[in-house]
Queue: 2 jobs
Job 1
Amino acid sequence: MKTLASLVALLVYITLASAQSAEFGQCGGIGWTGATTCVAGNTCEVLNPYFSQCLPGSSSVSSVSSASATSTASGGLPTSTSTAFTDTVAKAAGKLYFGSATDNPELPNAEYVAILDQNAYFGQITPGNSMKWDATEPEQGVFTFSGGQQIVSLAQANNQLIRGHNCVWYNQLPSWVEDGTFTVAELTEIIQTHCGTLVGNWKGQIYAWDIINEPFNDDGTWRSDVFFDTLGESFIPIALEAAAAADPNAKLYINDYNIESAGAKSAAMMELVQTLKANGTPIDGIGFESHFIVGEVPTDIQATMEAFVALGVEVAVTELDVRMTLPETAALLEQQQKDYQTVVSACNAVPGCVGVTIWDYTDLYSWIPGTFPGQGAACPWDANFVKKPAYDGIIAGFA
Ligand code: G3I
């Protein structure tokens, strides 16, 4: 009798176990007919209408999971204590979004995507690389949108806005553009075709486009590249007009770094906005990239934003991160918290600042260590997906 009871118990156990999805396995979604519960230690989370996934730890349903970290920072460093969600507080403050950049090679990481997908954290997504010229028109007239579409589809499934990035930039150009020798007429048509096709491909689906990226040197002079060297300043209206024709409802931005405070570069950008406005060229916004260094965030960001808004454009913080010289220390993380708060508070205080985007949310995928050796830890989540004090700075900035 005892043997029979044990056998029944074992059968029940096996049946239950096989009816559960493994860690990171699918556990629901439209069309899914498999198991809808998860193995111990996992919770079935709705990532989008088509895909629910077993994720480690406990969390709540739908697009909001627990704000508290499931692991702790290494080395006894301080972590976030906030239970609020970044996009929720941004919207409560009257902003359109709080967002993050992402990149296609990161998307196979289920733990990464599980956070990115939560629109309570991120109401907006920017593709970090896959809409750039080298990715979208590697050969003249040959357009590939699959990488960009992967991110657009992710954002749409999550009900997240999209910032398109970018159309005309000196960097990440295919060699046929970068090394080409063109007449004025030829390059004009190349820009019109590229921006028109790129923007037109996602017509009606993109909130804002960085049509022009980083046109100025830090001293406020025009950057020398194939566009300026061939066309002078006229490459700006050529691109903006092509984009406006392709998607009349997308907000058209010029995006740059080191324009967040008073100086030659922000003055040059303001003069450009005035010229474009005077000429009737479509221009809707200026992006403040905001790649900052711990303890060195400008104190006049709000005033600079107000000065741009007074010219008749909106502004947005488009690529925020705050890097430090490694290793991280408690003092550096506390200063970083203040720095994030300073930037977000500036946007919060200016009605014409529509939102804040961080240049990826986790140190795991930050561009900083690859570009600035010895520096890093620039994002609000650490490389183990634990929220840092910087996260609390963002929340406080929207208060
Ligand atoms: O695509 C190649 C791949 O084929 C190759 O195997 C691999 C090997 O390193 O490199 C890949 O290219 C990399 C590319 O990102 C795509 O992953 C480049 O090396 C790398 O330099 C490039 O970095 C990007 C950088 O722009 C280029 O300037 C960063 O990911 C991206 O975050 C960064 O973003 C820029 C914004 O667009 C504009 N503002 C500044 C910001 C930070 O630099």
Job 2
Amino acid sequence: MTETANSTRNPAAWWRDAVVYQIYPRAFADADGNAIGDLKGIASRVPYLARLGVDAVWLSPFYPSALADGGYDIDDFRDVDPRIGTLADFDEMVAALHAAGIKVVVDIVPNHSSNRHAWFQAALAAGPGSPERERYIFRDGLGPDRDQPPTDWTCSFGGPAWEPVGDGQFYYHMFAPEQPDWNWDNREVRDEYLKTLRFWADRGVDGFRVDVANSLAKDFSEPLPGSAELAKIPVGPDHPLYDRDELDDIYAEWRALFNTYDPPRFAVGEVWLENRERLARYATDKSLGQVFNFDLLRADFRAGEFRSIVSEHLAIAERAGSTTTWVLSNHDVVRHATRYGLPLTVPGMPFVGQGPTWDRDRQWLLTGGANPVEDTALGLRRALAATAFLMALPGSLYLYNGEELGLREVADIPDDARQDPIFFRSPGFDVGRDGCRVPLPWTPDGPSFGFGPGRANLPQPDWFADYAVSVEDADDASPLNWYRRALAARRRLIAATPAKLEWIDSPADTLHFRRGGWRVFTNFGDAPAPLPAGRVALTTAPLDGGLVPGAATVWMA
Ligand code: NOJ
């Protein structure tokens, strides 16, 4: 890594080691009492974010939307949902964040629009063969009545990937039917996105998180494979849907646009991809600049898994000339304080594990019968230990709103309150992602625990009272105060150390590394481990004399 890898030496490279706090706008803070969090709510919490010590916020979509997929179904890419605010509110929020030294990253969703988008409505009205339909992926139906879908593919949320429009044609949707996919071979679509990127960059946005960044370019040339055949095509240049080479041209155009700004705008791609060699492509300075590393979302709390993920992603980032991201939670996965509190195996259940998906069986583990198996204390200890370990690594750290409170997944949302399309399309087998999207508790009381003056858009459990910001604020030993101390220590570490880390040999179930004069030791096991020599600068659990307890991290400076 070069000397400029460190943001303290090159402010334009702020994102390379930034702490980015993901705000799920509907769940963060509701200023107007309509049950949906809003931009004024975010602006009102800037002092909270500044005191927490984050460098940037990333806002999940706040654009006009019917909320068929939590706002990732977008009606207008250059406006604000009226329930969430106005463009003027956006400008005020950005000004307040910038005044506090916090950068702003917004979500760009380039794979699809919503079915209410003006261009999709125009495509429906214009009919088969029209230029309007060319902006999306329309195909004729099969069979004498053209009422059979062009292929038997299923969409990512379950159910068919093609939706009929009633005139013999179907359109393709990788996600919900309310999310028709764009045709990225169409120049108008490309120009439209350049316009959208410029629109937000001109409004002062510092960067972009790019949704399903590996899926824009597609090959729908005939004959289309059936689903069995499709499943056998390796993801990459020959796959019709994922990780095609044509993406390079798309992102080269975006990069040219980003580089017209000073400092250049930054982007991070959401890419779930097994092929490591190809993952690095998205992170070069010819492309988006950074790509998410999601491996920790699928990993158990085990030293060996953590070590190999760290080594692998530092190497990928170095090859790309970028930095990697450390992520334990986001709006798509079960909160990690819960994942880490579940047993790895349960008799009679082939896989419990700690992967990101959330099915009925695992929901039962939390709520079923008299013996829910989530060990909440252990889950929190491991969550803090993992976070402290990651915080000291080279690269940037992405936090998901509420994790600084130690929030757990809300497992017992009644079916009739659920919102996630995954729940409706599985159908009902996978409970979906609502459990990590429940509005945050700010106070121990009030109609929505201080989220807003009214109710919340998903039911909040009684135990949220113990996790409220005001409660944790007053408790020096709370997760919130630990995050504040840890992020302050991280700033000192970054200012003082080179980007590289060196591993130090350590006992089984532990990891130990050095960055400059700082050393970090994590005990992943249950039994206490000997405390390495050095002055303790940060811990996630009280030390027992010369021992580091199980599930704990210590920094030494
Ligand atoms: C990834 C987003 O993170 C997820 O929430 C969304 O459902 C899909 N992309 C579709 O936009």
